[in-house]
Amino acid sequence: MRINIKPLILLLVLGFGINKAHTQTNQSIRKIAQSLGQGVNISLLEQHWNSPSQLLNTDILPLLTTIAKAGFETVRLPVAFDHFVKEGSNQLNEEILQKLHETYLSANQLNLKMVIVYHYGKLTNENYTAETEKIIKFWKQVIADTRHFSTENLFLELYNEPTTDMDIWKSTATTLVRELRKEDPDRIFIIGGANYNGINELLNMGKLSTDDGKLLYTFHFYEPYIFTHQGADWTPEKTYMVGIPYPYKKRKMPKLKGVAPDAIVKKEFERFPREANFAYLYNRIKRIKGEADKLKIPLICTETGVINLAADKAKSKYLSDITDIMNSFDIPVMLWDYNDKFSILKNGKVIKQLNGWLKD
Which of 303, 152, 173, 310 shows the shortest CA–CA distance to 229? Predict the structure, then answer.
């Protein structure tokens, strides 16, 4: 029996071409991820507890200028879109669109890349169908105004810190990418995992079926939480204590008092000696990067930082360690935040322990 090998050769050639194209796409998106370099968040337009007019009238240009001079390459701009809506509609106010437009142009003049991220959304397990439609409508309005901006300088992070069940979020994220890709074919979109952009949830979610080679996957890293969020009034069951050191030093640890045996903070307190050091954090990020590489998902970290209530020395040491570790695994980082509750400033300047990372 004679076998016509031409079709087989053709299939092999096509297969090689597909694999080669996939490899090139994978390399391309990773190169784009690396271009984000050292980044920082500007806390302003997500502050829904302040009036829209106050937020819109705040001049961001001085912040952008000092950020660029400090050596940052990227700014991440969280926006509480639901706070800037025309009453009784899903239509964004023209003022917020203009603000984003002007902010991008200012950042671009300063050679800063920009990430716009949807903050403080209202997505739940119960309303996700209607809410997903609203999120898409908001982004369509933003995209209509920004579509012509450089795809190498403007990135869209489609939703910050989802809290729904993982299967609901994965379905929602898939829909967001599919529908918004129709509006902006070449833009890099950024997607995280459930449980507040948890890394374990991101790795469990894996690559989306709508991943077209133009997706970056983000996680937030605030481990150990009782250190990075010590004294935070929005999670009092975990973070009512202050004076927690980094790295761990037994003689400097505050006493844990008045908590139930099964309290969350008790468990975190017990783990703290093992987790609050460079070696643990290094191995944790190493495992994360290894798993992400297996899944072929390009990682970035769009939030990590330490609250201002931590001691200056401990905060500086943690930020120095975590940026060095992320850098060693080629994970771009955007610190939270520049000058608010997690400020990286001391006496008006970026803390000196970050200088090496910024100049890398």
Answer: 310
Rounded to whole angstroms, the Cα distance separating 346 from 348 reads 5
Calculate the alpha carbon distances from 103 to 82, 91, 348 in Å: 19, 20, 22
- Token couple for 185: 């074919």
Q: Are strands 345-346 and 349-350 parallel, antiparallel or unpaired?
A: antiparallel
Per-residue HEC secondary structure of 116-170 comes to EEECCCCCCCCCHHHHHHHHHHHHHHHHHHHCCCCCCCEEEECCCCCCCCHHHHH
What gap in Å lies between CA 82 and CA 121, rounded to an integer? Answer: 7
Q: If 0-12 CB within 10 Å is exposed, 13-18 middle and 19+ buried, where does residue 288 land?
A: buried
Can you say whether residue 156 is alpha, beta or left, with left for phi > 0 and alpha for psi between -120 and 50 degrees? beta
Helix axes 128-146 and 166-181, enclosed angle (nearest 10): 30
Q: Cα-Cα-Cα-Cα dihedral of 220, 168, 216, 94, to 10°?
A: -90
d(CA 248, CA 246): 5
Q: Under a CB-based contact definition with an 8 Å cutoff, are residues 183 and 135 in contact?
A: no
Per-residue pLDDT of the chain (360 residues; tens, 9 = 90+): 444 444 433 333 334 343 333 444 577 898 899 999 999 999 999 999 999 999 999 999 999 999 999 999 999 999 999 999 998 888 999 999 999 999 999 999 999 999 999 999 999 999 999 999 999 999 999 999 999 999 999 999 999 999 999 999 999 999 999 999 999 999 999 999 999 999 999 999 999 999 999 999 999 999 999 999 999 988 877 778 899 999 999 999 998 887 887 788 888 999 999 999 999 999 999 999 999 999 999 999 999 999 999 999 999 999 999 999 999 999 999 999 999 999 999 999 999 999 999 987
208: tokens are 């989306």
181 backbone dihedrals φ, ψ, rounded to 5°: -65, -30
SS3 assignment, position 283: helix
Cβ contact 116:100 at 8 Å: yes
Query: What size, in residues, is the chain?
Result: 360
Q: Report how many helices (DSSP H) and strands (DSSP E) the chain contains, helices first.
A: 14, 10
Q: Nearest-5° angle of CA 43, CA 337, CA 268?
A: 120
Our measurement of the distance from residue 133's CA atom to the centroid of its chain's CA atoms, rounded to an integer in Å, reads 22
